[in-house]
Design goal:
heterodimer; A: 97 residues; B: mainly alpha; 0% strand
């Protein structure tokens, strides 16, 4: 059986998850617009899988905060040194990445 | 990073460019993402937690000093990320050599022994940390719509059943899918913006 109307976003999304509906599958063969939406949802599903991976942190929060504190300290230290050296600084012009 | 505290600069100029101009906000943005990357990379190379913190501190301060001393990023000579990875590797090696005579040294291979997988490790960690930063930014930008964030977090990140989440939040499942779709679009925009600012992984 062919789905006459275009499937709703939630129907397409569900199809990306399990590809159970033969009606939607047939509809996609005939409807470029829905096919394009389906492909986008498929790519999104991959992104979301990655996102779930990073949502559970591999670094403990306290470690993460300590790392941020270390970096903030480096910025402050760099600023102190910079203001102290402003008058006598001689940039090395050839120093590049 | 706390919600509401955006990790990205409001202007769209390059973060690295901002660092070169001594923009503290650019440095904060840079280190909020790369600090944990450096730490995790050092950890994966086998350093102790204390050793990793030392690497982060030395690299962060060294980078600031280099930029303030006139260092310039020249794309013709390579990507800044590759340069950074080299500095981090050098720092890890240096720390190992420094500690090798003490009882508290790290028993782990030199970075060179890890060989070809080094870049792969770096890219993997960088990709994860940048995605994490995007997620934090998404949370911050959703602060004005807490229901949408809750819906996204429960349905997408925690994989709770759609019907349950929709019922708890008093919305239809169709609406839940629309929220999910909108949040993904926002996330992709944030990710694109970050890639423009820092270069793609």
């Amino acid at each position: 059986m062919f789905l006459n109307r275009c499937p709703k976003l939630d129907e397409l999304d569900a199809f990306v998850q399990d590809a159970q509906s033969k009606r939607i599958a047939r509809h996609l063969l005939r409807c470029p617009s829905c096919r394009s939406k389906f492909e986008e949802l498929y790519r999104d599903a991959n992104l979301l899988a990655e996102l779930r991976g990073v949502a559970s942190d591999s670094l403990e929060q306290c470690v993460r905060e300590r790392v941020h504190a270390i970096c903030r300290m480096a910025i402050a230290k760099g600023n102190e040194r910079s203001s102290g050296e402003k008058s006598k600084r001689h940039p090395r012009n050839g120093d590049t990445a | 990073m706390a919600a509401g505290n955006s990790p990205f600069p409001t202007t769209r100029h390059s973060v690295i460019g901002g660092c070169g101009q001594g923009d503290n906000r650019a440095w904060e943005t840079f280190f909020s993402i790369y600090g944990p990357i450096i730490f995790r990379f050092a950890r994966r190379a086998g350093l102790s937690e204390h050793g990793c913190e030392e690497v982060v501190a030395n690299v962060a301060f060294g980078l600031m000093r280099a930029f303030r001393g006139g260092f310039e990023v020249d794309p013709a000579k390579g990507r800044f990320r590759d340069y950074l990875r080299k500095i981090v590797n050098r720092e890890i090696g240096s720390l190992r050599r420094h500690r090798s005579g003490t009882a508290n040294h790290d028993h782990s291979p030199e970075p060179a022994e890890v060989g070809n997988t080094v870049e792969q490790h770096w890219c993997e960690i960088e990709r994860e940390e940048r995605l994490r930063a995007c997620l934090e930014q998404l949370r911050a930008e959703s602060a004005a719509r807490p229901r949408d964030w809750t819906a996204f977090e429960r349905y997408v990140l925690k994989s709770e059943p759609a019907a349950q989440v929709a019922r708890d939040l008093g919305i239809s499942t169709s609406r839940l899918y629309v929220i999910k779709h909108d949040m993904i679009q926002l996330l992709k925009r944030i990710r694109q913006e970050l890639d423009e600012n820092l270069g793609e992984v």
